[in-house]
């Protein structure tokens, strides 16, 4: 349970940052890499590629 709580908090912070920066990439059901690559062709997806550096920064500085 503590690890799940930490994961939920970090996910919430990450989604908040992405929403504030307007980095949008839709996803089907799992929000995984394949979903992101498939939805990157969506005209509503804006700056979806910025989610990769955000993920690296979260791994490097937060964890």
TrEMBL record:
Molecular functions (GO terms): protein-phosphocysteine-sugar phosphotransferase activity
A biological-process GO annotation: phosphoenolpyruvate-dependent sugar phosphotransferase system
Cellular component terms per the entry's GO annotation: plasma membrane
Keywords: Membrane, Phosphotransferase system, Sugar transport, Transmembrane, Transmembrane helix, Transport
Sequence intervals crossing the membrane: 6-34, 46-62
Xref: InterPro entries: PTS_Glucose_EIICBA (IPR050429)
Superkingdom of origin organism: Bacteria
Protein's UniProt name: Uncharacterized protein
Taxonomic lineage: Bacteria, Pseudomonadati, Pseudomonadota, Gammaproteobacteria, Enterobacterales
């Amino acid at each position: 349970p503590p690890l799940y709580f930490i994961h939920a908090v970090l996910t919430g912070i990450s989604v908040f940052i992405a929403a504030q920066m307007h980095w949008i990439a839709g996803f089907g059901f799992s929000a995984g890499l394949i979903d992101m690559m498939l939805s990157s062709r969506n005209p509503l997806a804006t700056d979806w590629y910025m989610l990769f550096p955000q993920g690296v920064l979260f791994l490097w500085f937060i964890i």
